[in-house]
Amino acid sequence: MVRLKGNGDDGCMWDCMRTGETHQVWEHFIKSGEITNDNINPLIAASWKRCYAYEVDPYDGVCHQVLDQDEFAKAHQRRYQLIDIGLPLMQKLYNYVTGSGFLVMLTDERGIILEMLGDEETIQKAREINFFKGAVWTEEQVGTNAIGTVLKERIPLQVNSCEHYCLLHHTWTCSAAPIFNQKEQLIGILNMSGPYQEAHQHTLGMVVSGADAIMYKMRVQHQNTQLKVINERMHNIFMGMSEGAVLLNKAGKITNINQVAEGIFSLAKAEVEGKPFEQFFPELAKIIGSLNKGQDVLDVETPIHGAAGITHCVASVKSIHDENGQVNGLVIIFNPVKRIRNLVNHFSGAHASLTFNDVIGRSQQMLEAIRTAKLAANKMSNILLQGESGTGKELFAQAIHNASSRKNGPFIAVNCGAIPRELLGSELFGYAEGAFTGARRGGRSGKFEMASGGTLFLDEIGEMPLGKQVSLLRAVQEKKITRIGDDKIIPVDVRIICATNKDLKAEVEKGNFRQDLYYRLNVITIKLPALRERPEDIPLQFNYFLREMCRKMGMSVPQVKPEVMEYLVKYNWPGNVRELQNVVERMLNILNGDIITVDHLPVEIVQNSSAQNELPPNFEEAGASVRWHRQNNKQMMRQMEKQEILRLIDQYGGNLSRVAQEMNVSRTTIYRKLKQYNINI
């Protein structure tokens, strides 16, 4: 409520014409600028002094600042909310004084009269002093008056008769109260003006009540607007959540679901609302028990029964309380397990990053392996990759995954030889809570579940214990698994790629590998050649590793002496590509200068190569067979250089600037080499 501050508590009626006391004080002040009577309201006295300083003409009283039509329209629009709320209350206030000669008006914080209600006769009288809509009733314009002075003092005030600064206003009594917004900013004035003979303190009280009512309605409207905004935001959050969400009332009936929940249920919102939640969450209903308990549940796995069947989800339940702390509903947030696993796999790095573009090699054996792998990529059949350690089996597995329709799904790799025998089952199939001592609370999903929708790469499959092969066979055949310590069957949609450096058929004959599992996994076999079987690819691999490591180490690519490549090609590479990569890294680490020589090669490579009398007998490039002998060393190096140029031209689409950059030579040199090797592009 605004504070009342007026002419005293006696509420006496003023009659300047009869007593003449205030009129005499006014006359003396107008002439001298001094107030000689202490009975004058201090607020009125302060206003007179301001008006005297403003040099307001006390014998005028006509407002000379009136807005034109456009200016008034802008001022009116600026306070549309105040007017919208204030007009109905002004009408009620005017109903109390109809026929008494009083006007009810509303101004803005600048003193501009925005709205006015009154009898026609009084309105006409007011027009004589420009007391109408669009006029600016400030102290600077018309001296002391209820509107202008309240704008200065910011408290309710009544100005009677001779208390007005201008003589023409002495026949009026005016009562005004300020109107503040929610930020305590002055935004308007509510005023009642009428004949001075009708002056009474109750008039000011009515105005104050009216101003309070306007401010109250403005606060309510503001709060309603805020609530509407909050509700709209909450609705948008609810509907825009990436998880499914369901709201329940106290009776356990579904009152609302979001769009994700519609998709999981495979039902429209109207088909779900009003139904008991147990129909869709039967197992969750057992966990929650009575809704009145308000039992919250966090991240439990539960099946959801929708129109399209059962969807396994992870759900959380939160109780909703009323103002008395009583449970009046629940909210259930849930997400399909498959989506959660995909997210986990994505952010934990369980995805394939390599493609067939990362396979380095132009030998006939490698090209055949790539061709077979590409053909098999979009098939659903299981694949067995065979090759020595270090030949790039995981690279091929990732490339196959990324070339398949499952490329957006997870890629989960498991090294069957690196996991202890007793843990392999739980690693592959997961376990339920309490399955064994030390089992994680809530259980844990296995690699099969994590790979669902994608690819499971079982590396070193030949090392899998015979006892675990039975469970693996069942999972591969039935596409279903059961966690250790649980009896629930979980469907899994997994494409299997296996890899081994063993001869699995020989292992079957020895009794180390199940024959039925072997034939289940060995649908498509891809043999990856050892590096020594494709010597023509050694320069390609070497140069690739050289450039990549120099880039990572922040150094320029050094020159390589021709004899270095000769030693590399003659070496038998028992560790295959992985060994070559390590050799390149070692040479760069011990390099002191910008030229790689034979001195930078490991001793075993130099000794192994020196012990051989000649290079491998065959070196195929683009289908042509070339016999290599020590005396043809220069021809060999030229052939390898030509092969490297052809590979880079193919890789960079004929961009010779990139080819020159990769080979660390000028474009002029590349043009000369093209002519020398008769390469047309």
What attributes does this structure have?
27 helices; Rossmann fold; 681 residues; single chain; alpha/beta; Beta-Lactamase
Folded structure, characterized:
By secondary structure, this protein is α/β, with parallel strands linked by helices. The protein folds into four domains: 207 residues, Beta-Lactamase, CATH 3.30.450; 104 residues, PAS domain (Beta-Lactamase); 181 residues, P-loop containing nucleotide triphosphate hydrolases (Rossmann fold, 3-Layer(aba) Sandwich); 144 residues, Helicase, Ruva Protein, domain 3 (Orthogonal Bundle). The strands form six sheets. Strands 2-1-5-4-3 form a five-stranded antiparallel sheet, with helices on both faces. A hairpin with a 5-residue loop joins β9 and β10.
Quick structural summary:
This protein is an alpha/beta fold. The longest helix has 40 residues, at 201-240.
Secondary structure elements and pairings:
Elements: H1 16-19, H2 21-32, H3 42-54, H4 69-78, H5 80-97, E1 103-108, E2 113-118, H6 120-127, H7 139-142, H8 146-153, E3 157-160, E4 172-180, E5 186-195, H9 201-240, E6 244-249, E7 254-257, H10 259-265, H11 269-272, H12 282-288, E8 297-306, E9 309-321, E10 327-336, H13 337-347, H14 364-377, E11 383-386, H15 393-402, E12 411-415, H16 421-429, H17 447-450, E13 455-459, H18 466-478, E14 480-482, E15 489-491, E16 495-500, H19 504-510, H20 515-521, E17 524-527, H21 538-553, E18 559-560, H22 562-570, H23 576-590, E19 595-596, H24 603-610, E20 618-621, E21 624-627, H25 633-651, H26 656-663, H27 667-676
Parallel strand pairs: 11-16, 11-17, 12-13, 13-16, 18-19
Antiparallel strand pairs: 1-2, 1-5, 3-4, 4-5, 6-7, 6-10, 8-9, 9-10, 14-15, 20-21
Helix pairs in contact: 5-9, 14-15, 18-20, 21-23, 26-27
